[in-house]
Amino acid sequence: MFNALVNAFKIPDLKRRLIITGALIAVYRVGCYIPTPGIDGAALADFFSRIAKTQGGTLFGIINMFSGGAMERLTIFALGIMPYISSSIIMQLLTAVIPALEKMAKEGKAGYEKINQFTRYGTVLLSVIQSYFIALWLENPARFEGLQIVMHPGWGFRILTVLTLSTGTIFIMWLGEQIQERGIGNGISLVITAGIISRIPTALNQLFVLISPFAPSRRQIQPVTLLIMAFLLAVVVFAVIMITQGVRKIPVQYARRIVGRKIYGGQSTYIPLKVDTSGVIAIIFAQSIILFPATLASFIPNPGFQRLAQGLIRGHLLYTGIYALLIIFFCYFYTAIVFNPNDLSENMKKYGGFIPGIRPGRPTAEFLDFVMTRITLAGSSFIAVIAIFPDFIMAWLKVPYLVASFFGGTGILIIVGVMLDTLKQVESHLLTHHYEGFIKTGHIRGRR
Fold first, then answer.
1. Which residue in 378, 335, 370, 331 sits closest to 250, CA to CA?
2. Coil, strand, or helix at residue 249?
3. Which of 307, 287, 65, 300 is nearest to 191 (CA)?
4. 273, β-bridge pairs
5. CATH code, 223-407
6. For 443, which DSSP code?
């Protein structure tokens, strides 16, 4: 692996792409520390530490994770890339239900560029709306337990906040597109991953304080517990890699066609059906829904609503059960949106392809739907287990949520998935220039 990393800098084009990617990510991280004008950052950080209670139990915890901690400091990148993600998901759902957008998506590169432009417009709109309501929320001291967050409230502050936060999100979106075009890997995904990885030093510092190697009297975690945590982390990463790369290969045979004096077709191939089609989207949907009552409860002082929200906070059995069921539901929902067995069956039939033992047309679509339903159950169950695993680690080993969050959930899925995708792209450059890849066989598992 180290030889592959050294070889990567021997290829001029790949070296340039790696340097550009690193430089743009560094620009993003610098922006996460530039404060928004008119905000008392210390008071805001104190408020977030109170509502989070080390468990990340509100929607602000999700936004803060995706923005790399910029939300709790309310920097110019406080919204992060979440508006773009929301706009992308909305466009995906609309493409599946609106015929005009579906037709546009089938036009190839031109259609993709149009839909991408609509996604950008949606990102700007969502950024303006979210930043305006954040400005209104910050101006009310009653919602911050008496803390004065905004030094000079009014329309001047609101307009400045809207312009600052919206521009910050648009700039992050531009950075992601530049990484995609001139760098290596998926730009938006790398920006999100950089924000999540930026929390690792803080988590390690908390872990060091709990271990207290130079003060045994203050030690809260024993060395044996630390070994157990390291073993569990390795198992979780290995399992996530296997499920992320896991596919069910459906064999496809193409009939021979004679055109003039040439024979076309006759080859065998396969359709790779991913075990985990939804990725982290199902977890994001489920978290947004189940944490919404807890978020409202921090602003609405109603006793009945407070009791309802208390039952839906992280660590409670009701929260865990509903959270797991929501993840499984959204895995099936998203898979049904993005995977259309009827279209796949028709395309196979059009080009003379068939699954051995299955008749073309409707029987093929029903078979594909049956297989996808079965493997989605396995994938969604695994995602649900990974999502609730940090809660189990936090309760069992008595560690803060920031430390436990790296043992599962959205963060580990994004880090592993993005790193695998980036390694594949780097490896493809290496193999093109006759260098060995990261694996001695020359292929990352799952690409054969």
1. 370
2. strand
3. 65
4. 248
5. 1.10.3370.10
6. S
Domain boundaries of the chain, sorted by first residue: 12-194, 223-407
What is the number of residues in the chain?
448
Q: How far, in Å, CA of 145 to CA of 238, rounded?
A: 44
Whose tokens are 């193409």? That residue is 254
Can you name the residues that pair with 63 across neighbouring β-strands?
none
* Token reading at 302: 């109603």
**Token couple for 117:** 């432009």
DSSP strand pairing (268-274 vs 257-259): unpaired
The pLDDT of residue 437: 54
Are 399 and 210 in contact, with CB atoms under 8 Å apart?
yes
* Token pair listed for 251: 């064999």
Contacts of 201 (CB under 8 A, 6+ apart): none
Least trusted range by pLDDT, from 90-104, 248-262, 350-364: 248-262
Point out which residues pair with 268 in neighbouring strands: 253
For the chain, report the end-to-end CA distance as a whole number of angstroms: 19
* pLDDT for position 243: 87
Residue 443: per-residue pLDDT:
46
Q: 246: helix, coil or strand? A: coil
Architecture category of domain 12-194 in CATH: Orthogonal Bundle (1.10)
- Say if residues 277 and 337 touch (Cβ distance below 8 Å): no
- E-only strand ranges, 292-381: 353-354
Q: Is the dihedral of CA 297, 326, 385, 446 positive or negative?
A: negative
Residue 121: how many CB atoms within 10 A of its CB? 11
Instruction: Answer whether 401's CB lies under 8 Å from 314's CB.
Output: yes
